[in-house]
Backbone:
């Protein structure tokens, strides 16, 4: 099944995977601790604004995970002291779903050592909820947050487990683990 981009958010561990039929020539790169989805060197040129974006950012001992430009303002709001739920809800509502040919939803989550939240804004709904177990939401088919079997305990295993899910058209993935001692990130580019 093709579910597009997806996130798995739980307390302490989270992951993001790019799955794409249209733009498979992408990778996750580490830019001084911020994980960014970017075209590979051999990718064809495109003016599509949804191809490159930050997908994981750290702020105040939390990690923000998402499928687009919403990651940056959510991170900024958390840095200003907003509660995670409010930062997600306000940003997703303000940016709305992507105005592309598929009305692609925006998905995002906040992973903390003691709390985690997941959210999606679709053409017909805005959903933000606190989660206490691994929870998945995707841009297609699985566009309502649901409990999800995800056994990763480190950033590296989170990235690999997300990448290896049987959903179609895996391109790259990122994983995070948040503990009281900090945020660790990992990348899986399928190489």
Residues:
């Amino acid at each position: 099944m093709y579910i597009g981009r997806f996130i798995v958010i739980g307390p302490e561990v989270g992951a993001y995977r790019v799955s794409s039929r249209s733009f498979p020539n992408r990778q996750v790169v580490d830019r001084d601790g911020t994980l960014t989805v970017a075209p590979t060197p051999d990718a064809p040129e495109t003016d599509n604004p949804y191809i490159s974006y930050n997908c994981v950012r750290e702020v105040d001992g939390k990690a923000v995970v998402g499928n687009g430009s919403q990651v940056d303002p959510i991170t900024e709001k958390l840095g200003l002291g907003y509660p995670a739920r409010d930062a997600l809800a306000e940003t997703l509502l303000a940016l709305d779903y992507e105005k592309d040919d598929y009305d692609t939803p925006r998905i995002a989550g906040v992973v903390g050592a003691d709390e985690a939240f997941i959210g999606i804004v679709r053409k017909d709904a805005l959903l933000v909820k606190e989660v206490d177990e691994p929870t998945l939401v995707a841009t297609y088919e699985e566009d309502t947050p649901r409990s999800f079997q995800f056994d990763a305990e480190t950033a590296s295993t989170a990235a690999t487990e997300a990448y290896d899910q049987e959903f179609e058209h895996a391109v790259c993935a990122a994983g995070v683990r948040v503990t009281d001692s900090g945020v660790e990130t990992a990348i899986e580019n399928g190489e």
